[in-house]
Amino acid sequence: MRSEQAQRIAPETAIGRHIGEVQRRLAQAFPPFVLLSAMVAAWELIVWQLALPAWLLPPPSRILTTLLSNLPILGEHVVATLTVTIPGFGLALVTGFALGVLIDASPLLRRAVYPLLVTSQTVPIVAIAPLLVVGFGFGMLPKVLVVALVTFFPIVVNTADGLQAADRDQRRLLEAMGANYWQLLRLLRLPAALPSIFTGIKVAITYSVIGAVLAEWIGASAGLGVYIARSLRAFRTDQVFVAALVTSLLTIVLFALVTLLERWIVSWRDEP
Amino acid sequence: MRSEQAQRIAPETAIGRHIGEVQRRLAQAFPPFVLLSAMVAAWELIVWQLALPAWLLPPPSRILTTLLSNLPILGEHVVATLTVTIPGFGLALVTGFALGVLIDASPLLRRAVYPLLVTSQTVPIVAIAPLLVVGFGFGMLPKVLVVALVTFFPIVVNTADGLQAADRDQRRLLEAMGANYWQLLRLLRLPAALPSIFTGIKVAITYSVIGAVLAEWIGASAGLGVYIARSLRAFRTDQVFVAALVTSLLTIVLFALVTLLERWIVSWRDEP
Amino acid sequence: STAPASPTKELTPVRVGLDWTPNTNHTGLYVARDKGYYQEQGLDVEILGAQEGGTVEQLVATGKLDFGISFQEAVTHARVEGVPVVSIAAIIQHNTSGFASRADEGITRPRDFAGKKYGAFGSPIEQATIKGLMECDGAGDRFNEVEFVDIGSTDFFVATERGDVDFVWIFKGWTGIEAEVRGTPLTILMMNDLKCIPDYYTPVLITSERMIAEKPDVVRRFLAATSAGYRFAIENPDAAAEVLLKAVPELDATLVKRSQQYLAGQYQAEAPRWGEQKLDVWRDYAQWMADRGLIARMIEPEKAFTNQFLP
Amino acid sequence: MATLDVRGISKTFRGTNGLVTVIEQLSMRADAGEFVAIIGPSGSGKSTLFNIIAGLETPDSGAVIIDGADVTGRRGQVAYMPQRDALLPWRSVIENAVLATIVQRGDVTAATREARALLDDFGLTGWGDARPAMLSGGMRQRAALLRTVLWHRPIMLLDEPFGALDALTRAQLQQWLLGLWDRLDRTILLVTHDIDEALLLADRVYALTPRPAQIALEVAVDLPRPRSYAVVADPAFARLKLRLQQVLNVY
Amino acid sequence: MATLDVRGISKTFRGTNGLVTVIEQLSMRADAGEFVAIIGPSGSGKSTLFNIIAGLETPDSGAVIIDGADVTGRRGQVAYMPQRDALLPWRSVIENAVLATIVQRGDVTAATREARALLDDFGLTGWGDARPAMLSGGMRQRAALLRTVLWHRPIMLLDEPFGALDALTRAQLQQWLLGLWDRLDRTILLVTHDIDEALLLADRVYALTPRPAQIALEVAVDLPRPRSYAVVADPAFARLKLRLQQVLNVY
Ligand SMILES: Nc1ncnc2c1ncn2[C@@H]1O[C@H](COP(=O)(O)OP(=O)(O)OP(=O)(O)O)[C@@H](O)[C@H]1O
Ligand SMILES: Nc1ncnc2c1ncn2[C@@H]1O[C@H](COP(=O)(O)OP(=O)(O)OP(=O)(O)O)[C@@H](O)[C@H]1O
Ligand SMILES: [Mg+2]
Ligand SMILES: [Mg+2]
């Protein structure tokens, strides 16, 4: 299925392979591009047809011009948001992974810790915002913690469940070698869990930027969340959409990076 | 590891097995209970020791009395929230699964659809709230859609990734039998993906109740979200914590139900 | 109050969107609903709470809501962006907001803001207002000595707990009363006492231009009943508080009662009737905003409000 | 009954140190109702050849012809027992056995009945409802063979079907397979490492060279049928065995 | 060099139709440096017995004694080649081969060197860095054997190590194994279905009954060493083979 067509076009020569690669890339980029263009066009058309006011649903053309004119301001906000996103997600990665391993370590811990983790996901941020503020002030720390809180959970569950995926025969072999818990983890269960862990990371990273945006609701002087709040107050719906667009693009880039990393690390799975 | 101890106590007789079962259950319930009690006690103690004001962090005892006195009002709110949660999560389950299969169906679709799905997760609810109401009114529908929006994504990613997990030899066998795409899916790839799909469902269900609570921010006259908003604005932190407690309990119950269902359906995995 | 509609007639359904969770600013609506004033006017009113910022005005403009609660600044912004909403009544006659600090902070006049930390909720109005207040108080350019700390939607008590923040812009009728209830001594520099920044209405009742053009009768009937509700609240603050608490039991009874007592004198104040709005107020504040670049262009103030439907 | 004709197949894989040619210009055939055995060194390309015939791999050149039709790369044409059992862990022995019937939209109830009836012959009495994880290595192999037998196709490819079985069980199943072949006139290709087994069962034996696989020797086994283990004593048997041993050990 | 003593082992599993007794009161021993072969019907309990010796299953009764110490249920005491190869798909052949060294915190560099040096003997030249998915069935089996050989323990359990190999490769590895055994004086237990193989390699052969496994026959193979395939011609060999065949076919 994987674009066999495109690969067949090019003969097995250096130049041919190069042309084939370019063709393949274009062929790959084409369908999402077409879909996207079609959707944007439809959006523009609907807005004009229904004569929707820009403060309700701005047309893509308007969003684009606003984006361009706002580029200088946006830079600062994007940097501020990413400054919260990256450490927050890093923290989520480390704690999520550690908790996943911990939960897996014994059914006892699983039963004791899981309900607490589920609870951590159900507490509305607004409820703990005062505690965070009183505990950590208005600096970066509480926002980083919110991002971590919003993103660590899928990593925990996917790690804990993924660790159960190891093959029985392989597990028994390592046990027969006298492998202790940690060796079993490192040599077998972790590699076997990697695909699942990456699934969790992909879900988590999708929440990371928007998590930072929400965290800025707690109080921040720059960031896409601040930009959105200001735009909402000023009925600049076009700016709200610009912010949403930028948030999406950042997230898609991060998501793509994780996917690439996954392909590189879990390469043994792709083999024929 | 799985409580072998407890099982050994009871001999293989009907009564013995029954006693063993009871003992086992108690032994299972014990550690989370101890941990929980310890945490609650510590919380109470800290609040008293530091003389924290109730508007910042109410002690568990206060939360409990508030819960009891608010029980009559809470009933209505809980019903309202669940009325949004259940259909919303049901919708997420169906669409998440369908999209996961769709994405898996071809790398083309994957590249075209994935960025859109990621985008759907990064759009702040506040930005689309007016559109939702304009589109769907103030009824249940927009809230159900928000719950679905908040919960479907982990199911998509876990389904799409899980479908890649099937064993190569088994896949080739079915291909040699002439299995078409759907047969391969039904007979091999779906069963093989079930553990991963359940992981996604567990993450998703964790977000479902809080998703409904957030959806009520859009505009609702009953529900735990309404209750929280009102309590927050009235500086009733104890009530906010009561709501958080109820939300957690509901979520933990739903999570436990999914875990049970998983154990029942993916039973072949537990075998020695 | 006014002539009741014939009982055989079907009630007209009406939706009102609140700007926030229900509070004592909204008491008149709940009283009118509870006491049957709306029904007498042939209206079946549904009150929807907890809208996030910006939403109510848009929903009123699109007709998804018939009426909404907003405030002058938002209506001004909205009209600049072409959102066709109109203020039809001032719920409270004067600005009851002010800059609050803990009494021991020693902030007794605007020039004391210098060297202090202000807890900002993130509106550009804040800078201009504080700057203006300090200039009026002869603090010159010492505005740069005020440190702005963004606190988002964090409340006064939380924000000032650790000393991250020294003063916050609050509503006296709610947060100010809560401080009294808690026994936290506050100093509040009331906007209206400082007589520096033009007065403005907050909150106001709004509807859409289309509603005014197409269903003036509904607007009139709605305001007749609502006005009666607020008059009741002015005359019977305790009973009105009970009505609100019955509708919204999550609220704190002491806070609501004390707040209602305070607002009883503020809803109408010295105006000839409840809800009255003045062109000066709309024009002067918009002009002030325009002069400071807070809005891209000046609005036509006479189109932003109307008194024509007040009973 | 069907004829299989493999014509000039070549196959090259990308290994860790460059390309590895596994099969080179290999041709072989099996006439309708013929029993053909294939013997060759480990790693020579026997499984790859079967994968090509089953349509799981595309040859770099050459064609697979069944009954005169080019079926290169086409799947579902032959019944195939792969070297590793590939039993689905969530299905019981019986449920695994009827898999091909499900895929080919046959009568599953009838197939289930048939599978149950065969459990005895396959030494799996009482294990029909067990999941593969509960079976021994040899039992898994027999379950996989059962699945292949119920995958009713005129041509069967068996990749070392008896490798994990003890002599007695193996002999029983060999006899059973011969019975089936006799009764239903299937065309059978069997990969085995056991020269005795090849000579006992087959009409013709191909001996392959080491990688890249080519035909080192093709011998017709003109021993009388029905054959039993007594055939070992036949001088013709000894002669054929010696020739095969020589060819296989020289390479 | 170590002695292994299996004393009165019993093991019962829960099958689909109630309990299945797989091993019943089975005792056997292997003296230090002895080569013992085990032959038994498929599904009789040989792999289960090995699992018990390796500490992977706990017997319901009985004990496993190594050099006089009770090691029942203790792991890491013996090198074990299980019936299914259990190669880790994300590790190359070499990386799989040194697994035991890693687990036992040995010198991995030395082990890697050793593994590379053995690739030739195991017919895996050029495949040291290949992942298991690229290997043929027999190549996987050899990789698993290589891993077991590098798992330096005085006692080795081999569960059908040559099942997927052709005669030539098999003979080469058998000779190689005998050389290793001779050189290093390991105690080896070998499960096989091939009576010739058992008699060629072992000092003593246990024949097992069908499930539940008990000892049907124990024979000492007093053929001269070093043995080659020529031993087949020895009348003592023929006599032993016949006895084993009789015992195994009667049961
Ligand atoms: N976990 C289990 N649950 C139930 N039955 C089991 C389990 N493991 C093994 N058995 C049964 O125990 C018996 C012996 O299995 P074992 O794998 O030891 O046989 P074996 O002698 O190695 O056979 P083979 O030569 O076919 O590999 C078989 O009937 C098998 O079905
Ligand atoms: N996907 C692959 N990539 C690279 N090499 C491969 C691949 N598949 C098979 N090979 C190589 O092709 C050769 C033939 O493999 P094949 O499985 O056909 O051998 P075989 O004759 O069945 O051997 P055995 O008797 O051991 O099963 C082997 O050297 C193997 O390493
Ligand atoms: Mg093979
Ligand atoms: Mg076995």
Quick recap:
Chain A is mainly alpha-helical.
| Rounded Rg of chain A | 23 Å
pLDDT under 50 segments of chain A (min length 5)?
Answer: 1-12
Largest interface: A-B, 69 and 71 residues
Total DSSP E strands of chain C = 10
Write up what this structure looks like:
The complex is a heteropentamer, with two copies of chain A (272 residues), one copy of chain C (311 residues) and two copies of chain D (251 residues). Chain A is an all-alpha fold and 272 residues long. Chain A is built from ten helices and no strands. Chain A has helices at residues 4-9, 14-49, 60-105, 107-122, 125-136, 140-162, 168-176, 181-215, 224-233, 237-265. The radius of gyration of chain A is 23 Å and the shape is flat. The longest helix of chain C is centred in the C-terminal third of the chain and has 20 residues, at 216-235. Chain C is globular, with a radius of gyration of 20 Å. With 311 residues, chain C is α/β, with parallel strands linked by helices. In chain C, 57% of the residues are buried. Chain C contains 14 helices and ten strands. Chain D has 251 residues and is of the alpha/beta class. The chains are: A mainly alpha (272), C alpha/beta (311), D alpha/beta (251). Bound molecules: adenosine-5'-triphosphate (2 copies) and magnesium ion (2 copies). One adenosine-5'-triphosphate sits between chains D (13, 15, 20, 22, 40, 42-48, 83, 211) and E (134-139, 164).
Keywords:
heteropentamer, C: 311 residues, alpha/beta, five-stranded mixed beta sheet, 41% helix, globular, disordered N terminus, D: 251 residues, six-stranded mixed beta sheet, 33% helix, binds adenosine-5'-triphosphate, binds magnesium ion
Secondary structure elements and pairings:
The complex is a heteropentamer, with two copies of chain A (272 residues), one copy of chain C (311 residues) and two copies of chain D (251 residues).
Chain A: H1 4-9, H2 14-49, H3 60-105, H4 107-122, H5 125-136, H6 140-162, H7 168-176, H8 181-215, H9 224-233, H10 237-265
Helix pairs in contact in A: 3-4, 3-6, 3-8, 3-9, 3-10, 6-8, 7-8, 8-10, 9-10
Chain C: E1 12-17, H1 27-34, H2 37-40, E2 43-48, H3 55-62, E3 67-70, H4 72-80, E4 85-90, E5 97-102, E6 117-120, H5 124-136, E7 147-150, H6 156-161, E8 167-171, H7 172-182, E9 186-190, H8 191-194, E10 204-208, H9 209-214, H10 216-235, H11 237-247, H12 253-264, H13 279-291, H14 301-304
Helix pairs in contact in C: 1-10, 1-11, 7-12, 10-11, 11-12
Chain D: E1 4-15, E2 18-30, E3 35-39, H1 46-53, E4 61-66, E5 69-70, E6 79-81, H2 93-97, H3 99-103, H4 108-118, H5 137-150, E7 155-159, H6 167-184, E8 187-191, H7 195-201, E9 204-208, E10 215-220, H8 235-250
Parallel strand pairs in D: 3-8, 3-9, 6-7, 7-8
Antiparallel strand pairs in D: 1-2, 1-4, 4-5, 9-10
Bound molecules: adenosine-5'-triphosphate (2 copies) and magnesium ion (2 copies).
One adenosine-5'-triphosphate (ATP) sits between chains D (13, 15, 20, 22, 40, 42-48, 83, 211) and E (134-139, 164).
